[in-house]
Task: inverse folding
């Protein structure tokens, strides 16, 4: 590579970033949106699966086995398989990403609920709490730290995996990265990579903070 | 709503349909306002019995009535809100502050928040919790404080019945003794019907009005007051369970006020030497106690009481310890052992209330311990 090419194609060209800022922000917005949708869908599917495993213990191994199997599927393969069915759409993107969150979310919800001490449940029953109230006001809050941990891991890995969805025309920041790679033009690639790392970090910290705010007792006990 | 009796009738529990019973046709009545201890070795079904009262375990057959109402005829959550429940591991909600923990049942019952906060303050005083504890989380409290919160939470909605499953089993002996004393103090005022599960015979003897001693498989061996249990064990199992030192244990159950009044080698300070020497001789004592204006004023050495001495002029020694009419005979024994005079002086609200001697204690135990039919050994 000549010196002049290096000058015209540095790691980042700020004038290009300013010029394309609308497009970059749109990609970031799409990345955030698809991440949140995927994790939300993952959580909505995990909750009943975890509830089933907790209620009927014998289903636990089948459920964790199934979610573990989903997790082993290569992402590119899964995107490719869904395109003939759902097209180059959000649905084809969200299904694999949500599937990948199931293993960690189901595992952590189950672990969270099982971490509630028997004596606490015994006391709750003994005081005449209804089963629904016991779940909502005792078990769920106490399972929250474990669930929050699961959400953080699921969210961060979804931000990363989403870049791969660029191959089916989705993928937010992944599109910038792919675009840069195709054209051997480093700026969009650098911007896409840096922003996806930043997004992962920011979301991780936000969930961490939200979790801390929701579980004040856990901090006091640790201090 | 207080002083509700609990009646167990032919209560049986089998965990497996054709397995051995955990509780076997158990019938007993817990009188309203009294403390009954369920005690026995592991596997005697004491906890199972307790948990059938608030239907955490459903009986296989037989009935349990609170007052006149069969517990199975009431919705289970409603029933449990009428029954305070205290367990060894306390089971406080770690994500709720002390105040929120105490408020659990009142909130479930939909009390207005002003009434709830009044009640929390009242209970904190009742169980001896500092106000500053109320906003803390359970993990910030010591074991003893946690158990106080557990008791306050169980009492929150003023239930007529309290079930306690080894409530003081997880705290150290000093705290345990204090919590036991506090429970007795609470019970003086509240008069709840309390069923207490324990494996500690001393705890049962100290706290219970009646003790139900169960054997493996939930068989009732004896149901009696602590004194009866120690005085006349129904069989060898009971005798072995209460221990060989049951005579000494009975000392803790009787109070000084149960003894007949005994003047002992004690005279008014104005008494003449002849009267003083007669009192010492009669009690075979080398020491003479003097009473000044109705108050015990100290001991003087017998040999110093000569013809013509005024008792008021002699050097006086304070007693080694004092007992009150409500002290146990065990306390009195302790004082006697520690004194040179072999006598414990009774301090009845400041006034001289007589003395306790070893002979008097032995007579009390012997009298009530003698079996009129077989004749007790002497």
Result:
């Amino acid at each position: 590579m000549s010196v002049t090419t290096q000058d015209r194609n540095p790691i980042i060209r700020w004038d290009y970033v300013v010029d394309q800022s609308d497009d970059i922000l749109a990609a970031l917005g799409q990345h955030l949106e698809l991440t949140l949708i995927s994790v939300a869908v993952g959580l909505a599917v995990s909750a009943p699966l975890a509830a089933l495993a907790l209620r009927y213990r014998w289903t636990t191994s089948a459920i964790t086995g199934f979610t573990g199997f989903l997790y082993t599927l290569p992402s590119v393969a899964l995107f490719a398989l869904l395109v003939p069915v759902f097209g180059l759409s959000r649905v084809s993107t969200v299904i694999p990403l949500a599937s990948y969150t199931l293993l960690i979310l189901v595992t952590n919800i189950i672990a969270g609920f099982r971490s509630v001490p028997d004596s606490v449940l015994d006391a709750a029953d003994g005081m005449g709490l209804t089963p629904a109230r016991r779940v909502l006001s005792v078990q769920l809050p106490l399972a929250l730290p474990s669930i929050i941990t699961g959400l953080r891991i699921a969210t961060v890995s979804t931000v990363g995996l989403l870049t791969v969805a660029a191959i089916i025309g989705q993928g937010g920041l992944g599109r910038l990265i792919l675009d840069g790679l195709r054209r051997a033009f480093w700026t969009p690639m650098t911007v896409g990579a840096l922003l996806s790392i930043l997004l992962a970090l920011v979301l991780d910290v936000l969930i961490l903070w939200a979790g801390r705010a929701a579980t004040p007792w856990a901090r006091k006990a640790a201090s | 709503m207080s002083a509700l009796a609990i009646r167990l009738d032919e209560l049986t529990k089998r965990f497996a349909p054709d397995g051995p019973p955990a509780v076997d046709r158990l019938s007993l009545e817990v009188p309203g306002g009294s403390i009954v201890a369920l005690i026995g070795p592991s596997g005697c079904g004491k906890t199972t019995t307790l948990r059938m009262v608030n239907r955490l375990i459903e009986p296989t057959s037989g009935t349990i009535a609170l007052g006149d109402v069969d517990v199975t005829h009431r919705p289970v959550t409603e029933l449990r809100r009428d029954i305070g429940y205290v367990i060894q591991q306390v089971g406080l909600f770690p994500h709720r502050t002390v105040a929120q923990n105490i408020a659990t049942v009142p909130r479930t019952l939909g009390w207005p928040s002003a009434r709830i906060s009044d009640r929390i303050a009242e209970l904190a005083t009742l169980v001896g919790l500092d106000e500053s504890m109320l906003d803390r989380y359970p993990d910030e409290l010591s074991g003893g404080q946690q158990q106080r919160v557990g008791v306050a939470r169980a009492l929150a909605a003023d239930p007529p019945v309290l079930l306690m499953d080894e409530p003081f089993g997880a705290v150290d002996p000093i705290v345990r003794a204090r919590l036991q004393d506090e429970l007795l103090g609470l019970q003086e005022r509240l008069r709840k019907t309390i069923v207490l599960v324990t494996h500690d015979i001393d705890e049962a003897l100290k706290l219970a009005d009646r003790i139900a001693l169960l054997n493996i498989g939930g068989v009732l061996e004896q149901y009696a007051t602590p004194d009866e249990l120690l005085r006349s064990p129904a069989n060898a199992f009971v005798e072995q369970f209460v221990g060989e030192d049951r005579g000494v244990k009975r000392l803790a159950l009787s109070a000084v006020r149960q003894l007949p009044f005994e003047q002992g080698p004690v005279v008014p300070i104005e008494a003449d030497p002849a009267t003083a020497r007669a009192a010492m001789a009669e009690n075979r004592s080398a020491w003479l106690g003097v009473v000044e204006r109705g108050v015990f004023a100290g001991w003087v050495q017998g040999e110093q009481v000569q013809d013509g001495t005024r008792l008021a002029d002699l050097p006086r020694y304070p007693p080694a310890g004092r007992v009150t009419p409500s002290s146990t005979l065990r306390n009195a024994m302790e004082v006697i052992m520690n004194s040179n005079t072999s006598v414990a002086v009774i301090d009845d609200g400041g006034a001289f209330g007589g003395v306790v001697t070893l002979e008097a204690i032995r007579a009390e135990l012997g009298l009530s311990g003698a079996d009129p039919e077989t004749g007790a050994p002497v």
Summary: The interface with chain B takes residues 117, 119-130, 133, 138, 141-142, 215, 217-218, 220-221 of chain A (CB under 8 Å). The radius of gyration of chain A is 22 Å. Chain A has a mean pLDDT of 91.
